[in-house]
Amino acid sequence: MKIYNTMSRSKEEFVPIKPGKVKLYACGPTVYNYFHIGNARAFLFFDVVRRYFEFRGMEVTYVQNITDIDDKIIAQAIEEGIPFSEVAAKYTFAFLEDAKRLGLKAPHFQPRATGVMPEIIALIHALQKSGHAYEADGDVYFATASISQYGSLSGKKVEEQLAGARVAENTKKRNAADFTLWKRAKAGEPEWDSPWGKGRPGWHSECVVMSRQYLGETFDIHGGGVDLVFPHHENEQAQAYALTGKPLANYWMHNGFLNIEGEKMSKSLNNFFTAREILAEYDAEVIRFFFLSKHYRSPIDFNRELIAESARALKNFHAAFKSVDFLQVQDSPSIGGYESAEREFNEAMDDDFNTAKAIAVLFELAHQAKSAELPMPERIAAAHMLYHLGGALGFFQSLEEPAQDINHLTEDLINLIISYRVSARTEKNWALSDKIRDDLKALGVILSDTKEGCTWTVET
User: Fold this and answer.
1) 239 CB-contact burial (10 Å; exposed 0-12 / middle 13-18 / buried 19+)
2) Which of 89, 212, 408, 460 has its CB surrounded by the most CB atoms within 10 Å?
3) What topology is assigned to 15-269 in CATH?
4) CB 205 within 8 A of CB 51
5) What does the alpha-carbon distance between residue 229 and residue 236 come to, in Å, rounded to a whole number?
6) CATH class of this structure's domain 302-401
């Protein structure tokens, strides 16, 4: 497998630290609002990275953080007139809801910044003690000049950052490129006790602590959107080098930008869409297909025509299952003859997660499954392989839902039948009431009439 490493700006052979195991960290949401469709691209892509490693038999530990203390959260709390913790709780819950609706597998660990505050303070204190950080009037800054590796991830030289500084000059900093590790609390803001007084952490230290806590000093892959390369990931990497002299991660992966109708997404242009809004219009599988139909590092243009194309493509896959009876595909073992398709699929994914090329393999399998010229056993085998490979990309989850929900459906049906019996008893139709009771008993469902109503158990 080869992965494009942002650090080296080239494709490199992927060699995990421990054979057969992958430690993966991807930046999660800052929970001040519903996450937008650009965020969804990153969340969905790293869901596929995790799924594909597991598909290939690797043991994956996937960590995705939740940033629940930040300037944006505080600003949103002021706007809504509620405590910052309520804002964070509200939009954390919304994120988890929308992530599930998108078909994302839950990470193995999903730490929150406020849950690791002692560890964040300890990390900043260690940086200060080793001379890589300094305190100024209750704020603590990272001294970028203290390590030679600063700028190695983004390719930005410190001199370039000084010339093109995007923020007003802070006279408390020794160097304009230095970044904040700890912020002195302002009146009315959330605060924690620290060696430098009451305050809160900067964004960049939070992810260093949360990733290292679960994955170790150096782990395999750190990912996120390309907008995070600088300053966030650069500043994470700087702290890791300062602490241990080692990189935080061996491979850095970043997905490309999302544009809306050819323009950058912006509230001022009235083209800003949350994932929740898009999920109200389109099926989650359509959104997944749309993003995966192009290579993850390429920019992608979000427009209705392309979404409609994705929907039509997915209908092609589902028509293939229908043409051979999907239950046969689920229940039958794979029939030989399509191993070459799996090899092509793996070759595409092993080449820096080329999902567009992998999807082309799925199209060919769908064509084979629908071909009237092939005998049915071969068509079923093609559909089985389509289901097998598509699952590695997170497709066809909805086809599994009826089987997963059968217990709930059974309970609902039993309760519905009991409601008919209650109606029969109310009308003093004892014959029908007794028949329902006896028929359910014959099926192993035992009814008990009590003062509180009718209850039931399943006879074992």
Assistant:
1) buried
2) 212
3) Rossmann fold (3.40.50)
4) no
5) 10
6) mainly alpha
